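I have a small job for you when you get a moment. Can you supply me with one protein entry, sequence and fold together? It will help me judge whether the discrete encoding reads sensibly. Write everything out right here, beneath this request:
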Amino acid sequence: MRRSIPACVAALCLFSLARAQQNGGTGGPLVLAAGHPGGSIQLDGKLDEPAWQEAKIIVDLVQQSPKPGAPSPYRTRVRALVAGNKLYFGFECTDPDPRAIAVHTMQRDGKVEGDDTVSVVLDTYGDHRTGYFFRVNAAGARVDGLIAGSEQPKLDWDGIWDARTARMPGGWSTEIVVPANTLSFTKGLTEWGVNFERNIARDRTVLRWTSPTLDSVLYDLSRAGSLAGVEGLEQGRGIEVSPFTVGRAQTDFRQGNRAWQGQPGADITWRITPQLASVFTFNTDFAETEVDSRQLNVTRFPLFFPEKRSFFLEGANQFQFGLGLDQQFIPFFSRKVGLYEGEQIPINTGVKLNGRIGKWNLGLLDVQSRDKYVTSIGSVVPGTNLFAGRVSYDVTPKLRLGTLVTNGNPDGIHRNTLAGFDGVWRTSQFLGNKNFLAGAWTAFSSGDVLKGNRTGWGFNIDYPNDLWDCFTSLNQFGESLDAGLGFLPRPGIRRFDASCEFKPRPSKNGPFRWVRQEFMEHRYYRVTNYQGITESWRFFWAPVNLRMESGDRFEFNWAPWYEYLPRPFEIAKGVTLPVGAYNFTRFRAEFETSSHRWWELGTTTWFGSFYDGRLLQQANYLRFTDRKGRWQAGLTSDQNFGTLKEGTFVQRLMQLNLVYALNPNLAWSNFLQYDTESQNVGNNMRLRWTLKPGNDLFIVWNRGWQRLLLSRSDLNIIPDKDVLAVKLRWTFRR
């Protein structure tokens, strides 16, 4: 099977080339020249100032999906201006039925997939792969992210920029302003890469400026057009100071202790060059960071939780390593810094260096922590120095080679160093206008690690296109490969993956015209340990996976599965599976309503055999949003019902989320969750008031309650811990 995959991929590439509907990879690039008006702009969402009228060059967006290039009733015009060392974008979005414009949130970085939105991507380096993403919905909610390739951007980055929207008789309009000193860019470039997109949620129509083909994604900067007239943008002295002060009251009800704390701190950014920035942090505090969403785990491997702390998210795209590794292996995982066994480790100082020098890409991080008593291990974790460095070089516009080094161990005691090398080649012009990627990597660790194979390597070949989406990869992780500052949930294995999806779009004149697209998925993986013994394999087949014209989705899957347990596995408290080989078959049924609806619901049910018994897994959600996007409410439940020879178990996770936004700059949220594994009720209440971009007030209240469990039916809970934090952050730029 391994030998046949590359041949299959090549055959599928040829077939999809024959089915290409529009060539997005040939011809000259589109150019938009930014105007340089003399007048000022009042940011109110209305493009009524004379400055906008002076921007004579206007681009019109064309339909990208579902019918590339076809006429659309939604006219979208975009202008660009450079004024006061700021970059402005203005969108005018006409709509034949303005009452149907969908809005679900006003919250910063809220869920806007079901909203009418406009988006901008910028390639400020000119490398056609690294850049910025900005998105605004019709209510003015802002979403931003960092781009490091054609994959989804890292959306947890918060840049300093602003936007306003306004309703007009025939639709809506928006103004977006991005200060030059928010961006890193290559000095001397007369043009930046740029692309624009508009999403109409109710019928899932997408309009785009360049590359309006089904095979292209907005984040693929190699398909972007050009924005001229940016050579006058300056970053001044490149100094940005963000002082903050934090007041915190902590109560431990079990110990009967209460503590009051207050401390100042600061983040200082110095842009050494317009494309290279250094960031210094003192007394770093993450009081405003959202809590993790809990997860149920029926595997024998650790779960992945994403990074949410702003200091580590700035420039995170520079540390991306390899191709398609996802959560199998992350050589540098910033959650290992300042966190240990789920508890925060204080950071005295830290420094980062992010950006480019010519064709070189740099990402360096060095942090010094201090001693902290960690309750979960009952001892002090000594302060230590932790370092991560990533350097890559753009050999050609398509080929990037790089290296990554980490040094230090979060436990503050043991030595650990990891080094890795990778190369990625990507193009959007394969066989004319198709996407194709190939990558390889290798890594090794040293220090206080176990004897054995300390190396890892792998490769990935990917063909991600609209009709055919296929990839194959082979990765090996030595049993003693120790990523001290990384995430490696399963060392000591060799894993082979192969996947191919056929995704036809039925004719609108046929019997299946109510279907937008069908996804016929075929996925297979096989895992062998370092002794050559097969530990896992799974085949995943989706004979039915329908995305309907309405946006609703239905899916049914069949997944035969094999697991070999080399040691006993306690799947739940008091239920331990013995060593042995297990064959079982899982089935899944899933239904989701379209995200543009005011009421959303979804249900996912896994059922069938599981190891030596049966397991029923149910995940359900119900969400409501008012038509102005001010109120949001969501209820989620995950439940596992296991019946095995070794015993039965029930696991439950319940989550309730409430959000109220007075406007896009003032939002209150409350997140309540309870799970039967910890028997803990946790509540996170958070108020964020953006006085102006870069100046924020956060009020955060975290409280936990512990269930007593004096009897099987006992529902009593008692207060456990309570933290109230107030953080004020200000930003000064020169």
